[in-house]
Design goal:
single chain, 709 residues, mainly beta, DNA polymerase, domain 1, 27-stranded mixed β-sheet, two-stranded parallel sheet, 8 helices, globular
Length: 709
Amino acid sequence: MPVFLKSTSCLILVIALISLFFTTKTLAQNNKKEIDLDEFVQELFAQQETNINYNDLYEAVFQYYRNPLDLNKCDRPELSSLYILSELQLNSFFNYTSKNGKLLSIYELQAIPNFDRNTIEKILPFVTVRDDGLQTDTRTLWQRIKAEKNNSLILRLERGLEPRKGYRNDETVSASQKYFGNPFKLYGRYRVQHFKDFSIGFTFEKDAGEVIEWKPKTKTYGFDFISFHFQVQNKKRIKNLVIGDYQMQFGQGLVLSSGFAIGKGSETITTIRRNNLGIRPYTSALESGFFRGAALTYEVHKRIDATVYVSNITIDGNLIAPVDSSVSTDDFISSIYASGLHRTSNELKNKSSIIRQDAGYNFTYNSKNNNLQIGTSLSHTNYRTQKDYELLSIKRNPTIYNQFEFTGSHNQLASINYSYNWQNFCFFGESARSTSGGLGNIHGFLASLTTKLDISMLYRNYQRNFHTFYGNAFGEATRNINERGLYIGLKYSPNRRWNLALYYDKFSYPWLSFQADAPTQGYEYLARLTWKPSKTITLYAQYREERKDKNQADNTTPIDFITKTIRQNYLFNIDYNADKIISLKTRAQFTRYQQSNNPTHGMALVQDVNADFGKLKISVRMAVFETDSYDTRLYVYEKDVLYSFSIPAYYGKGVRSYLLLNYQLTKKLDCWFRIAQTTYRNQDQISSGSEQIIGNTDTDIKLQLRIKF
């Protein structure tokens, strides 16, 4: 073993021994058991990749944690969107409440058939039984807003300590690489809300390198990004009204998907289905993937809801003037940018250059017993210029594989979705058609065969000319286009100590795709075995293998040849809650990637120590990693400040560590401090372009305050 690995392993061992020493201490603690939200998120996101919007997912989960579902008000889609209850347990819950009426206390969950202790412990942090839900609140909206206790302001400051190339003033920095702003990233967020009643909030952000300025012509009002929403719910027949920024999710996400979708992971059953969540306020700082305007859900009949929406928003894109002006004088869009970064002259040139207009509707029918749900959706999108409001067309640089991608000035999608519950089975699906004539289909079922065995199956077929701008249905690729596949999942829990989760996914790409100059196919499977010998110890081992066809990486002939690639991932994890104060997490990850006869390898050893002293919470990590190539990079979840999500790629050879402090100064003021550093071996510079760092260390700090009103 290299000396470096020996020394780092010793350091990890020392940290673990020190933490075990502290477990012998006894301090007064609150007996109330709170969920480790980070552990819950890791369970859902065990398969960590780059094509998932983790920030949006984490925020959605955290919103449920901060604003638990009222079990006397929530419906089946809302309860199933927690990804905790099986179909058998969902049926048991609604059968119980149908027979016995509303729950009188959260403790009544123990009386529901098929609700075991593990299930109740998992779901308790996300649900509640509110007394105010049993009475009509006669106060005005303004009075309820003023009296609401769920009311807070978040302020965050972060920056990288090492200077990036874009901030330097010397001859090595070109005009196009120079950042106009300072290296500080600023973030603020305010929200006041009450479950199924109202929500008001705004978010503002300045990325590192951006300038704070006031330019109404470019719709810049101080901070580079500002978001706002106002929502009211359940006002007679108005079930939901959002003005400002919002997202929507209907059916299986072929047409409209809010981003709260998990996909393939260690939860092999519940996460493959999307739920009808309807309109949701947009509160993230991500500067793409949302609507700006108004959306309304109206009860046209006791069992029929109608949702209509309109949106008008400026987006970033590259506008190209035609070369031959005698043929056409119309500009066209060559590409659309979703990063939201406006630091350099090139990024600013493309800022808010395009207007995107959206409009559409959804009608949803719910049967009397709520076992059948049928919906239909229509979505229309077009692009216009900022100056004269003329229609714009998207025209791509032609390549062999992208000739069926979307081109034109507008796109329209129509779909039909369904969900049907029969005994312990749930059948669901959606079929959609885009303006091009391309079809998208996704159909599947979830089933609880016994109290110990659950199964899922899903088939999807997205044609090569199927175009959806806001879809995020289940799939292998990042977008729902040019893909066919069959997924089978299994979960077996013989008792509360053991759990086995499996899935197998077979997929194919009927047309050419990126890095594959021919139709290709592949498969992926995962197996995860979890053992909980006691309340304080959890161990699991996970193996995942993926096989895909890709162009030969080192091919030198005029025609690219397709070869098979194999990616194997091994994960071993031990969680130990030493006492009410200290908890430990030890993880080992290994990966192997092979194309032809050239295998590469990667590994990461991670030790976490978490301490909870009541008002003060401390999280420390020390990790060592070593990878042979970018193909063997490893994604490892990290704890972060509230409303922030961190899952960096461990690539190269080095050490990664962080310290996270959370201290409650008063009942109305919390603060967080986080410092994270990566140190690379045998490397004298990090990254490239404007983000280049001279040296072998990359350090980031964050400071955050939460003020409760």
